[in-house]
Amino acid sequence: MDLVVAPLADHPEAVPVAAEWQFREWGHTDPGGSLEAWTAALARQAGAGQLPGTLLALGDHRPVGMVCLVARDMPGYEPATALTPWLKGLYVIPPARRHGVGGLLVRRCEAWAASLGHQAVYLYTERGSGGQALYRRLGWQAVHDGRYEGLDVTVMRAFPRPAGTPRIITASLPARRCRARPSTGPYPGCMARYARPPFEVSGLSVATSRDDG
User: Fold this and answer.
1) Is residue 208 part of a domain?
2) Residue 47 located in a structural domain
3) Range of weakest confidence among 68-72, 116-120, 173-177, 209-213
4) Which of 7, 53, 106, 213 is the most buried (most CB within 10 A)?
5) What is the signed CA dihedral for 127, 132, 133, 136, rounded to 10 degrees?
6) Those residues with Cβ within 8 angstroms of residue 62's Cβ, 6 or more apart along the chain or in another chain
7) Where does 47-140 show beta strands of DSSP type E?
8) pLDDT band at residue 162 using 50, 70 and 90 as cut-offs
9) Which range of residues forms the domain containing residue 191?
């Protein structure tokens, strides 16, 4: 599968698709919301030149995943008040999981935060979840445990590489048998889906690994 990660604004036709992913996964956290409202909100943060913004992953020219970078998350939770920015809303469609899409989106989001001058980036995930294990493998560190919106959560932090990665990252990956790995993730109080990455992005190159784990 050929992967490309680019700002969602570069593919405006994918905004309704990405908004539907978000609303289907996390709409229950917004009882008064609607798909139309979520679509409009996502369209307003589709760029990647400032916060908030959104990155889109395309596999073989089709949308397969997304991630957001926002200035604040966990509203009302005092320990998170001074922390910024936050990785949020990581989602990969079921057929593309365990093809490295989630890992590539995380790495690209880290590079994006660094390009904006941030020395650290944060997220929260359910404690002990598959999502936490994924982030730990990617080098994220737990900095706080607490309870938020009825869940035992862990706030995690990464120190992204200095700016210098390209605006668009592409990778050619071998075909793999997909297997879903659900976990609760960084979007407020919601369930997200993650894929274990078979590669890491380093500078301008993408190195593949045979470790399927």
Assistant:
1) no
2) yes
3) 209-213
4) 106
5) -120
6) none
7) 53-59, 62-70, 86-92, 121-126
8) low
9) 2-196
